[in-house]
Small ribosomal subunit protein uS8m (Aspergillus candidus), 170 residues
Amino acid sequence: MSLVNLSHVCSHLNNACKARLAVTSIPNSNLHLKLSHALQNSGYISSVIRGGPTPPPKHTILGTPTVSDGNAGVEPVTQDNVASRRLWLGLKYWQSEPVLGKMTMISKPTRRITIDVTGLRQVIRGEKYQTVEGLRSPGENLYLSTDRGIMEARECVEKQIGGLVLCRVQ
């Protein structure tokens, strides 16, 4: 798991939201895909589509079907284009403000921070646990990498598992 690439993704998503982009792309990796799905499940982004270096048609990202669409615009995966695969993310806005406000890394490549269930309970209640600040606002989420995949902190407490703290989304 490369936290360097994940920090680049966090800063890219911050910049894309500030620039009011409807669609942006990040490099394709299993970590980025799982985090993108977790962000989509939390309602921060609208869609996640695997594609090539060129963006897929807008109707596939925005979710509006067209007649006789099929797999138009989605290129098949071959040995030649695996390295150029991208994840295309549809960003969401509410009343001309981005839903994904700010995304910051907690664990750094040089300092990985793990947390257990008791520490997560403190963080969810808004208290500081070691170097991890508590969740203060209602729309704030903390994402962890666990042995069951990338999950939000509240899900981890429900399932009684801890893990590596990845990022905070406000």
Summary: The beta strands are 23-27, 45-51, 86-91, 93-94, 97-98, 103-105, 114-115, 141-146, 149-152, 163-169. Residues 3-18 form the longest helix (16 residues). The helical segments are 3-18, 30-42, 58-62, 117-124, 153-159. The domain at 3-98 is CATH 3.30.1370.30 (Ribosomal Protein S8; Chain: A, domain 1).
